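Collaborator request, handled under Task 6.
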Amino acid sequence: MTDKHQTGRTQAPRAVDAASGFFGRHRPGPNAKRLAEMIRVDHAGEYGAVQIYRGQRAVFDALPAKKGVSDLLKHMEEGEAHHLATFDRLVAEGRARPTIFAPIWNAAGFALGAGTALMGEKAAMACTSAVEEVIEQHYAAQAEELEAAGEPLAETVRRFRDDELGHKETAEANGAAEAPGYGVMRAVIQAGCRAAIRLSEKF
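Structure tokens returned to the collaborator:
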């Protein structure tokens, strides 16, 4: 691994004060329902992302020659864990229930991570790039919706979106597009991610 590992722009975890503004108001009605959907799907997405990185690291941690990529994945996993902790807190506060698909995303995320890692370092990066691109776009759309409604949570979502973009750029700098079958792999993974988003949002 080379210095290109440092290309990502993931920021150090910060306190998420903006998330508390909306919830302290306990708004009833459609706004609360829509926000619950956002929290549920974001909680599911970050949960799945952590599991993907854990699956990848389970493979690379066992290979001393891959310590560089394992350390890089650990760094990105820590960023996702910080995001997950934020949504864990919001779920625990009763603002949304977890998705009923959580056990499936747990197993599927780990399997996807481990499977792509077994295909090689570049395939693992292709997986990261594909997933993070979908999540980054998802957060960007959410942030616009929240900002239009004047909701403070938009600041948190916007910051998390920047982190995901950093992960995507890091994966691209480390050979994501050079993975065998990259185009097909990217299309399949992204289709799965978008399906998971739709299911988790509603259920």
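The cover message to the collaborator said: "The helical segments are 19-23, 30-60, 67-92, 102-118, 121-148, 153-173, 182-202. The chain has a mean pLDDT of 86. Please let us know whether this matches your experimental observations."
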